[in-house]
Amino acid sequence: MSRLSVEGGFRLEGTVRAAGAKNAILPIMAACLMLEGDTVLQNIPYLNDVSIMLRMLNALGVRAEYRKNEEIHVVNTRKIRHIAPYDLVTSMRASFFVAGPILARAGFAKVPLPGGCLIGARPVDIHLKGFEALGATISMEHGFVQIEAKALKGSEFRLDFPSVGATENLMMAACLAEGTSIIHNVAREPEIDDLGQFLQAGGAKISGLGTSTLTIVGVESLTGINPYPVIADRIEVGTLLIAGAITNGDVTVKGAIAAHIKPLLTLLAQAGAEVETGADYIRVKGNGRLKAVDFETEPFPGFPTDMQAQMMALLTVSEGKSVVKECIFENRFMHVRELMRMGAKITLEDQMAVVEGVENLSGAEVKITDLRAGASLILAGLVAQGRTTVYGLKHLTRGYYDLPGKLRSLGAKIIE
Ligand code: UD1
After folding, report:
1. pLDDT tens, 363-383?
2. Pick from 413, 416, 401: which is nearest to 17 by CA?
3. Cα–Cα distance, 194 to 24 (Å, whole number)
4. What is the pTM of this model?
5. Is position 32 annotated as part of the catalytic site?
6. Residue nearest to atom 12 of ligand 1 (CA)
7. Closest ligand 1 atom to the C-alpha of 304?
């Protein structure tokens, strides 16, 4: 199994640049199925999830190619295919994003039930109810969801929960529906705004981005966009800032947008770190041993579930008792067991973890169970006494581009 080793005890200091946001790139790539002509996406790290989506686009009849200067070039001039390949969709949940665009372009989409990190049941019922509200009929056959609508019709409906993926899928589908759609209780994550702005640049008529209600007036077609730079990855930014805080260091991340990770910055400040923000940078300085803080995960603008594991790593060595509630996914505490191998004191009760900060963690052999758990274990390794060997890097490279390299550039001792 692929692994890396972290020597703990080195203070991280310096400046790094944020990469483009995985969670914006994936739906934007899916949206390329709907844009006729040429599109160039910029600020794209070569992540494993990105390579899966590239394969998906090519399998569906669109020519998509990764270029060296962090760009993706897409040529969409032919009729697209309507069956999403099983192996691609089941290896990454985000490939379900192609359902909306295929349906809108081809009138019929056949997509397997998705896969991805095993952090919860993660059904797609909210996506499907939305497609039905737009006039589609849904059936299941041999593990494939079949969604059919000769012509999607705009309508007004409400999501049962502000699901990020459902909001994106339905927003895309509604762009090519006949008439107006008004979707209530949508998610408001910055990556949704980015997708919305991308679609607007291609001719979509969307209003209400950043609010809980989207109004979308359907258009006949959308055109390619050249170039479109994707926003910075707030989760990578947050992870690097915690690396600064946990090592009592001084880390600046350039290209970061503070408004996108406000709850994390507030918590870090509450814990005693020094936080400084500018138009396009965030700097976090450790300040001796940090203090315990409580938090719970929520849809944006609340604390992101994708930062829970990394924040927990920090709390394992902070002074006092912290309470962490996971309110988005029901199985997102798999890092807890591994952190405990390193000497963390954590008790779990349903969706709540109580973390009692210890003076020191000790290096151990640990296993990555999902993407953000991987980052959490590496962060813990940065302060553990001795060597931490982290196994299962395939989960990490799904969503972080060269995290070990970025941490090394700040002074971490990581051997791959
Ligand atoms: C996206 C992000 C992921 C992040 C999550 C929550 C991408 C590629 N992934 O995932 O990194 O952790 O948002 O911020 O953008 N749910 C249902 N039925 C549905 C859809 C969702 O019950 O039809 C539930 C899920 O099981 C989960 C919760 O709603 O418990 C949130 O899921 P959702 O917001 O849809 O997350 P994803 O879009 O999968």
Report:
1. 999 999 999 999 999 999 999
2. 401
3. 6
4. 0.97
5. no
6. 306
7. 14
